[in-house]
Design a protein that fits this description.
Elements lengths: L1 H17 L16 E4 L5 E4 L7 E10 L4 E7 L6 E10 L2 E6 L2 E6 L3 E4 L3 E9 L20 E4 L5 E2 L3
Parallel strand pairs: 2-5, 5-10
Antiparallel strand pairs: 1-2, 3-4, 3-9, 4-5, 6-7, 7-8, 9-10, 9-11
């Protein structure tokens, strides 16, 4: 019952947050309570939402070269099988980066995280519904598992 209530709360918050999504190719970043697409290659989704989720995540970054975007994979700790593939929604202090032909992100307090790197963050899962489809990215960049919203100040290299 508590888990179902949490899912409902997350979905309601998602609907509110995703209703504020806009798209942009500029690197100016989001305004208050906005989600925008920034960069050229890779293009990344960044947010300035007051909504903060609290799940500890260990993720592997994948650069989709042909689409020019990033997705993240969550793996089962024991089997290492991929359990979810999602579009990361980065905090506003994250910028897209290219290093030696590999796309990724850079965080001032952490450095670069590129294709194949494992990192930890605090955040949570968003379901890709409704207004989320308005994000101007190729379909491959918007996996069926939805979005992982990552909290500012929570990203670290390695598995935390």
């Amino acid at each position: 019952m508590e888990r179902a209530c949490m899912r409902t709360t997350i979905r309601v918050c998602m609907a509110i947050g995703l209703g504020l999504i806009t798209t942009s190719c500029s690197s100016s970043g989001p305004g208050a309570e906005e989600v925008v697409v920034v960069g050229e290659d890779p293009r990344i989704i960044v947010h300035d939402l007051s909504l903060a989720m609290e799940a500890a995540l260990t993720l592997e970054l994948e650069y989709l070269r042909e689409e020019g975007c990033l997705v993240v994979h969550s793996r089962d700790e024991e089997t290492q099988e991929i359990t979810a593939t999602a579009a990361p929604v980065w905090p506003e202090d994250v910028s897209p980066v290219q290093e030696e032909g590999e796309g990724g992100i850079t965080v001032a307090s952490v450095g670069s995280i590129v294709n194949g790197d494992v990192f930890s963050a605090v955040g949570g899962s968003w379901e890709a519904t409704g207004e989320a489809q308005d994000i101007d990215l190729p379909q491959a960049c918007l996996p069926a598992d939805g979005f992982f919203l990552l909290n500012e100040g929570s990203i670290a290299t390695g598995t935390g």
